[in-house]
Amino acid sequence: MGIRNLTDAVKNQSNSGGSGGSGGSDDSDGSANQASFNCDSNLFKCTGDSIQCLLAEIQFKQYCLKSPLQQLESSLNKITNIDNVKAILQDEQIDLSKIDTKYLNGGGLKLSGRCPPPYTFKVDIYTPVTITIPLADLCSAVERFSPLIILFGWVSGIGLIGRQQGVF
After folding, report:
1. How many CB atoms are located within 10 Å of the residue 44 CB?
2. 96 in a domain, yes or no?
3. Which residues face 130 on adjacent strands?
4. E strand or H helix at 32, and its extent?
5. Domains in the chain, number
């Protein structure tokens, strides 16, 4: 029960501290012992006895300054507090009659669906040489891996849309 009361007292302490005195005893240079702090602006000032100043500074650091872990936690909470439902669901109405149908029913990009002929080029260094690169092996590899290429395209597209909407 005593620890709970101490914890509640620490939580209920104000964010600024006043100054403390030494009860009349002075240092050798004639200045009184004083410590003042402000938790909001992270200011700490202490004059007088070095041991009392060190104890006051330890208490200031313990109760006023945030640790790097606490700062990271509060920053992560700010980043992750996104209303995903509000980001995904939008109130606007979309008029589907205005969709561009130029690329529907094969009206846009037209491909023949067959492998191109071998690529041939001429190199003139010392003697002219004609080099031919067959593309049949490349075509067969692309045909084999086409489901993976299509899957990668879908996953990339979903990732882009999800990131734009704040889901990821």
Report:
1. 19
2. no
3. 122
4. none
5. 2
